[in-house]
Amino acid sequence: MPSNLILFNKPFRVLSQFSAEGDKATLAKYIDAPDFYPAGRLDFDSEGLLLLTNQGALQHIIASPDFKMPKTYWVQVEGDISDEALEKLRRGVELKDGLTKPAQAERMAEPAIWDRTPPVRYREAIPTSWLSLQIREGKNRQVRRMTAAVGFPTLRLIRYAIGPYTLENTGIGQWNYIEPTDHLLKEVNQFEEQRNRKAASPNRRRPSEKGQQRSQGNKVSHGEGMARRKPSTKPTSRPRRK
Questions:
Q1: Inter-residue contact 91 to 46 (CB < 8 Å)
Q2: Residue 131 lies in domain
Q3: Average pLDDT value for the chain
Q4: Spatial separation of the C-alpha atoms in residues 11 and 46, rounded to whole Å
Q5: Which of 146, 141, 114, 115 has the alpha carbon at shortest distance from 131?
Q6: Where is the Pseudouridine synthase RsuA/RluA-like domain (predicted)?
Q7: Same domain (yes/no): 150, 193
Q8: Which of 43, 45, 80, 115 is catalytic?
Q9: If pLDDT is split at 50, 70 and 90, which confidence band does 121 have?
Q10: Which of 49, 60, 105, 202 fits 89 for a cystine, CB–CB 3.0-4.6 Å?
């Protein structure tokens, strides 16, 4: 049986969805696996690792920042990124929607990767540089906004890793079935057990149950519990509805 997890190396300018949207390329051009859907998103103008699954709990755990699966990006920026800028990224950057959490940011050599179509614009007077940036959040276009905030706009953005999964041995536009790690399966089992406990133990009891548990002399709420009580000659005050 195939695994319930797929690893895909998404090309530039491909939507992270199967449904058509204008004339833009979608996952349907590359992946033929019924009932699989992306666990999280990768922007249209970003490249690299995208995980897909046919299991709801697995999709939630991979996509939700609550489970803190680190995501590692290879980022080409405009200019020779400075030590000061890297330190700001490590401490956290103030964006319009709040301060980012501290990231792991390191300068790196240009990686040996596929050519992008179309290529990144080239300016002879302005150098470019690469950094590895690892975050544990999911703000909209976060990496691009972080590098711009420290003075180095992103030119090319590649997601290299999600947790233990990487692009190693997966060419651009290719996909493979992969096995969830033991740790990920443990997270899935714990999440499903917690969800089942909540479903089996609702926070509120039904009105009929409340009425049955009150003593004959106590006040009861309107509803089925009141209907089951014997008529009383004493006036009974009723609680106001809120």
A1: no
A2: 70-161
A3: 86
A4: 8
A5: 146
A6: 4-149
A7: no
A8: 43
A9: confident
A10: 105
41, 91, 205 from 94: Cα distances, Å: 23, 10, 45
Task: Say which CATH number the domain at 181 has.
Answer: 3.30.70.580
Residues 193 and 79 in one domain: no
Per-residue buried b or exposed e for 171-207, using 16+ beta carbons within 10 Å of the residue's own CB = ebeebeeeebeeebeebbeebeeeeeeeeeeeeeeee
Whether 174 maps to a domain, the answer reads: yes
State how far the alpha carbon of 197 is from the alpha carbons of 55, 184, 192, 194, 240, in Å: 19, 20, 9, 5, 33
| pLDDT the model gives residue 208 | 55
182 as an active site residue: the answer is no
Within a domain: residue 220? no
Within this chain, do residues 178 and 134 fall inside the same structural domain, yes or no? no
Q: What are phi and psi of 147, to 5 degrees?
A: -70, -35
Instruction: Please indicate, yes or no, if residue 122 is contained in any of the structural domains.
Output: yes
Q: What's the whole-model pTM score?
A: 0.80
**pLDDT score, position 223:** 41
How many domains is the chain built from?
Answer: 2
Angle at alpha carbon of residue 76, lines to 161 and 53, rounded to 5° = 25
Asked if residue 230 belongs to a domain, the reply is: no
